[in-house]
Amino acid sequence: MTRHPDPDPDPGSGSGTRARRPDPDPPPAQARELRLALTGAPPRTPGVVAGLAAAAGWRLAGTVALGWGYEARPLTGDAAGAAPEGRL
């Protein structure tokens, strides 16, 4: 059995032939460009999302940090947390 040497005995050194993994958190401008390329539309700002929700009878109930720069923005239909009539 022929044994082949590892092409990069120390992957962290950058001295071998293995490609480095891309940065999991690209710069903001690059992330916006990527999102535009994937969806055909720029990302919506929190204010735009709140305006769309208000137009549909919902309101922002808070913000929850998810990590990596993402946030969840739960919506509610009234002070008690019920959905607007006829909606989920």
The 3D shape can be described as elongated
H/E order of the elements?
A: HHEEEE
| Radius of gyration over all CA atoms, rounded | 23 Å
The helix/strand class is alpha+beta
Region (Disordered): 1-30
Kindly list the characteristics that best describe this protein:
single chain; 88 residues; alpha+beta; two-stranded antiparallel sheet
Describe the 3D structure.
Residues 1-30 are annotated as: Disordered. The chain has 88 residues and is α+β, with helices and mostly antiparallel strands. It has a domain at 43-76. Helices cover 25% and strands 12% of the residues. It contains two helices and four strands. It has helices spanning 28-39, 46-55, and strands at residues 59-60, 64-67, 70-72, 75-76. The protein has a two-stranded antiparallel ribbon. A two-stranded antiparallel sheet has the order 2-3. Strand 2 (64-67) and strand 3 form a beta hairpin. The longest helix is centred in the middle third of the chain and has 12 residues, at 28-39. The radius of gyration is 23 Å and the shape is elongated. It starts with 27 loop residues before the first helix and ends in a 12-residue tail after the last strand. The mean pLDDT is 75.
